[in-house]
From TrEMBL:
The active site is at residues 359, 378. It comes from Shewanella pneumatophori. Gene3D superfamilies: L,D-transpeptidase catalytic domain-like (2.40.440.10), PGBD-like superfamily/PGBD (1.10.101.10). The keyword Transferase applies. The keyword Cell wall biogenesis/degradation applies. This is L,D-transpeptidase family protein.
Length: 464
């Protein structure tokens, strides 16, 4: 009896060890599958699509697991993104190896969870196009409201989808505002073409946009210095990073789609206080001369000086300027510094081949718009005083001279900084915010493929 009991205990122990090992392998496969799913969105039609198939099989050979691990590690290395433990192949436990392969990225788990949810939604037959025939304002009734509520619920913008109401009531309006804010739209709770376009975007496309932008941003951040300024063009936002945290943020205005702000990296070494504005030819011919044709007083009212090709200042009456603007115009405009100068109080200069820079503005009300692709390529900064003050505190030694050069509002002063501030103009259309909410923005310069919707016509409404 005692021997039989001993044999039974040994068998149970062996079974427990095998069961534990199998459980850890299954957990490892799930973790690897989540990583592979994210990478497959970034590298479609690659070996990672096949890895997804392998990891769903009931039995997977150890050499197949090792190949998947090798490919995951190589992917993150190619992006210069560190993983938890680079010595993965020295670890015996497959679950620990899967943990070791995860990238050292803030928000990685949140992004992974959101992508998993979106891919689950993509497997369901729920994303049929919602057809919009007219603008729907708060308080109005429309048969599609129930479908809109369900979609808002699936995307996490409303808690309860049980109501079959067809009225855009206050709870639906609040959810729509949250949705619109997450997509860079005006939060007015009005269902129009742009709101409906984003509601109809397929979950798989959302997952792809989020994954690609997450990896792009992670790759960018992994190669950055301790202190830098970054302007995300589609988000119309500026952030100043210092030792890994944001010390200053601001809304910005960027270039129009037909005059885009370029993507570049440079360094701010000089601040121009009370800048004058040498008007670029394109802006002169496209924007200013049409105003002068209407009214020659425009030149004097906006404090412009006009120069010929030999830098001689030209003097003409308002009527003469209006007539001259109707034909060939061999002159250039320079706007004097002052309160109504287009560049405002500050110009932050950084060398580049596109003649763009950061500056103040004389039209601060434009920052209240949701779509701020309004400039001719340069970047206008709302919190320009905050940026100037930060530079004065951190990059200026002779602070008295800095103060002195602010006294005369009509005099242009160049001020060289004691240290440079690197600046990067980037293009990210999706990210996870500090509240674990997925943020999406329009591809304003059509740099990526257009988001897919079930029915393109659903976003095209005539006579709205």
């Amino acid at each position: 009896m005692g021997f039989c009991r001993f044999i039974c205990c040994i068998s149970l122990l062996c079974f427990s060890v095998v069961s534990l090992a199998d459980e850890r392998l299954q957990r490892a496969k799930k973790m690897l599958y989540q990583q592979v799913s994210l990478i497959a969105l970034v590298k479609p039609n690659s070996e990672f699509d096949q890895h997804k198939v392998v990891l769903t099989q009931a039995s997977v050979k150890s050499d197949a697991i090792q190949q998947i691990e090798t490919d995951i590690q190589a992917f993150w290395q190619s992006k210069q993104i560190p993983i938890n433990n680079a010595a993965v192949n020295k670890l015996d436990d497959p679950f620990i190896r899967a943990l070791a392969l995860e990238p050292q990225l803030a928000g990685y788990l949140q992004v992974q969870n959101r992508i998993r949810h979106l891919m689950w939604l993509a497997e369901q037959d729920w994303w049929q196009p919602i057809q919009l025939s007219q603008l729907i304002r708060p308080g109005k009734q429309d048969p599609i409201i129930a479908d809109v509520v369900k979609r808002l619920w699936l995307l996490g913008d409303i808690e309860n989808s049980a109501s079959e109401s067809t009225i855009l009531d206050s709870s639906v309006a609040n959810a729509l505002k949250r949705f619109q804010l997450r997509h860079g739209l005006k939060p007015d709770a009005v269902i129009g073409p742009e709101t409906m376009k984003w509601l109809n975007i397929l979950p798989a496309e959302r997952a792809s946009i989020l994954a690609n932008n997450f990896v792009q941003r992670a790759e960018f951040m992994a190669q950055r210095e301790e202190r830098f300024l970054v302007i995300n063009i589609p988000a119309f936002e500026m952030e100043l990073f210092n030792e890994g945290r944001v010390e200053l943020a601001s809304k910005v205005i960027v270039g129009k789609p037909y005059r885009p702000t370029p993507l570049l990296s440079s360094s701010i070494s000089n601040v121009v206080i009370n800048p004058s504005w040498r008007v670029p030819k394109k802006i002169l011919y496209n924007d200013l001369l049409p105003q002068v044709r209407k009214d020659g007083n425009y030149i004097a009212e906006r404090n412009f000086d006009v120069y010929d090709r030999d830098d001689n200042r030209m003097q003409r009456t308002a009527e003469q300027w209006s007539d001259l603007a109707k034909g060939p115009f061999p002159y250039r405009f320079v706007q004097r510094p002052g309160l109504n100068n287009t560049l405002g109080r500050y110009k932050f200069y950084f060398p580049n081949d596109f003649s763009v820079y950061l500056h103040d503005t004389s039209d601060p009300e434009l920052f209240e718009r949701s779509n701020r692709a309004l400039s001719s390529g340069c970047i206008r900064v709302q919190n320009v005083e905050g940026l100037a003050n930060w530079m004065a505190a951190n990059l200026v030694k002779d602070k008295q001279t800095w103060v002195d050069r602010h006294r005369d509002r009509t005099r242009t002063q160049w001020f060289a900084l004691n240290a440079k501030l690197n600046v990067h103009l980037v293009y990210w259309t999706a990210w996870m915010d500090d509240s674990n909410q997925a943020q999406f923005r329009n591809d304003i310069y059509q740099m990526h493929s257009q988001p897919q919707v079930q029915d393109h016509e659903s976003a095209q409404i005539n006579d709205l």
